[in-house]
Amino acid sequence: MAILGAAQRGDFDERGYLIARGLVPRAMCDALVDGMHAFVGGAGRERWYAAPYTGWGGMEMYHHPAMWAIRQYPPVHQVFSELHGTARLWVSMDRVSYKLPHHPDHPDYQNEGFMHWDVDIREVVRGEGGPAGVQGVLALTDTGLDQGTFQCIPGIHRRLEAFIKTQGADFDGRAADFGGETFERIALEAGDLLIWTTHLAHGNSANTSDAARLAMYLSMNRVPEDSAERRGGRIECFETRRPPNSRAFGGDERGWEAKQNLPVELTELGKRLLGMDDWPAE
Asked: Helical H runs in the chain?
């Protein structure tokens, strides 16, 4: 039975994103929240506003067993499979988010949010960027509009060429002057998975509440054509509990995950999503 309905697919086409409400059980989300608190040394607020917390909210944890449990949870794979039209996908090995509320005594953590693309939209318009992929974020706790939640510019993916013409000569295809654009913040409940096209401008917003925003970045895309070259690096990343080899992922200077080396039991689905095992032909 399909998970995504016509309304969700319509949202994805027209607005650039969809939400699979309540996709992941709260118990699985809670297990990851516990893992995040173990990563920082405890759940108490007295630990806030110091490393390993970051000002923008990213937390350099990539391989906790609770993360892999979510990655290989069959309904998550099904949603992405329905979007892509194939089960042959690889899962991202991205981090989690723990965005703290603004505090007058901690200006370094008073992040106002941001808006950007993770692809160069100039290449997209020129037809050089390849087909659009998807990105996703899973809410681990209920997240209000003032809590640093996901924000985007709905529908901008349908008018990229016109938008580029409004930018200056120094436009790099990713960061932009969004003056005149309308940002939409989206409230989520624990277990909601929000998925958006890589052609949608997106980011997180200012957290002016009194609670942290906890989330997990999670996406699946088609197995790439150069999978044979990439496979070894992905497996090594998993086995050594290291972040992906990309400047976008700074890693934890303490090496907490590698030192802990918490056991992760991959299912048959998990091994295929990692790239450890091949997908059968469709």
From this structure: 6-14, 26-40, 65-71, 74-84, 121-126, 160-164, 227-240, 256-260, 268-274
Closest to 125 in 3D by CA, of 81, 156, 80: 156
Q: For 77-99, how does the pLDDT look when each residue is reduced to its tens digit (9 = 90+)?
A: 999 999 999 999 999 999 999 99
Closest C-alpha to 207, from 150, 147, 149: 147
Provide the sign of the torsion angle of the four alpha carbons 194, 195, 199, 204, taken in this order: positive
CA torsion angle 87 89 93 94 (round to 10): -80
Tokens matching residue 111: 């992040």
Q: What are the structure tokens assigned to 164, written together?
A: 């580029």
> Can you give the pLDDT at residue 248?
86
What does the block give as tokens for 153?
A: 């510019």
The more confident residue out of 5 and 281 is 5
Domains and CATH numbers, the chain: 15-274 (2.60.120.620)
Angle ∠(170,171,175) on CA atoms, nearest 5:
130
* Spatial CA neighbour of 198 closest among 215, 170, 182, 222: 222
CA 7 to chain centre: 22
What is the per-residue DSSP string for 193-257?
A: EEEEETTS-EEEB-B-SSS-EEEEE--EEEPPTTHHHHHHHHHHHHHHT---SSTT----TT-HH
pLDDT of res. 164: 98
Residue 9 pLDDT class (50, 70, 90 cuts): very high
Mean pLDDT within 5-21: 99
- Number of neighbouring beta carbons within 10 Å of residue 265: 9
